[in-house]
Design brief:
Elements lengths: L9 E2 H4 L12 E10 L17 E10 L5 E15 L7 E14 L13 H12 L5 H18 L5 E3 L5 E3 L3 H11 L2 H16 L8 H19 L4 H13 L9
Antiparallel strand pairs: 1-5, 2-3, 3-4, 4-5, 6-7
Helix pairs in contact: 2-3, 3-5, 3-6, 4-5, 5-6, 5-7, 6-7
């Protein structure tokens, strides 16, 4: 996963770095768009009447130049003006558009989904990816649901045995993960606990940053790699830091 490409605002060149949800290649470009001024709802074709730096409501289509997959999008765009000088020109002005997505269909995938990953987990991940650009907290909650599905897939017990010999359900996700971490797999348990903390933040009053959510995506990707692929020490350490401090990284003092 390349977290650096998932920006709030993107130029057309930066959009080309996003992975196609069908073939995973970085060949996306804007095939067509329709824009209207944010304040007056005038067609963009009349932008000569608009002041520099105008904002637009925009809808359009992204196309993958490798597999020809198409993705509809809507959001905002804004004119950005720059001035530069070189040996042939002095203070030459040029304009570039920046795009701020609100929704895309089908959704982009923040990290590569492999065919080995369980369908129930992938479905929740796609629901999270789908609202990544519009609702960070809801996206974090969907990621929390993905953790529960992953626990089911790896046969993590849903119940524990009391001293009286009765089996009762774990009262919450935290205790279920703790049980799995202590009795089954400490590494996976730490990764899932870190994601649970970030997912819970999406349910509370407060501020969840895009960086926090990208942490969660990296962590669950690492858990899936360990279970279905390979390991990464950096992601495990990040998850351990979040779990030990019981906080998202943006709230941990450095």
């Amino acid at each position: 996963m390349n977290r650096d490409i998932w920006k709030t605002r993107m130029t057309t060149q930066e959009i080309e770095e996003l992975p196609c949800p069908n073939c995973n290649s970085t060949k996306l470009n804007i095939e067509s768009e329709a824009s209207y001024t944010y304040e007056q709802r005038e067609p963009k074709s009349r932008k000569r009447l608009i002041t520099k730096g105008a904002k637009f409501l925009v809808a359009g289509i992204l196309k993958c130049n490798k597999c020809f997959w198409r993705i509809t999008f809507n959001g905002f765009s804004e004119e950005k003006f720059f001035v530069y000088s070189d040996v042939t020109s002095f203070n030459k002005e040029f304009m570039e558009m920046e795009y701020e997505f609100r929704s895309l269909h089908p959704n982009l995938r923040i990290f590569k989904i492999k065919k080995e990953y369980p369908e129930s987990v992938v479905n929740e991940l796609d629901l999270s990816f789908n609202i990544f650009f519009s609702d960070l907290k809801s996206a974090a909650n969907r990621l929390r649901n993905a953790i529960e599905h992953l626990l089911n897939e790896i046969k993590s017990p849903k119940k524990f045995k009391t001293k009286k010999g009765k089996f009762i359900a774990f009262p919450n996700l935290h205790q279920r993960i703790e049980n799995y971490k202590n009795k089954k797999n400490k590494k996976i348990g730490e990764l899932l606990m870190a994601n649970k903390i970030i997912g819970n933040e999406g349910s509370h009053i407060g501020h969840l940053t895009k960086s926090d959510l990208l942490d969660a995506y990296e962590i669950i990707e690492e858990a899936l790699k360990i279970l279905y692929d390979k390991k990464s020490k950096r992601i495990k350490n990040m998850a351990k830091q979040i779990a030990s401090q019981n906080k998202v990284r943006s709230k941990i003092k450095k």
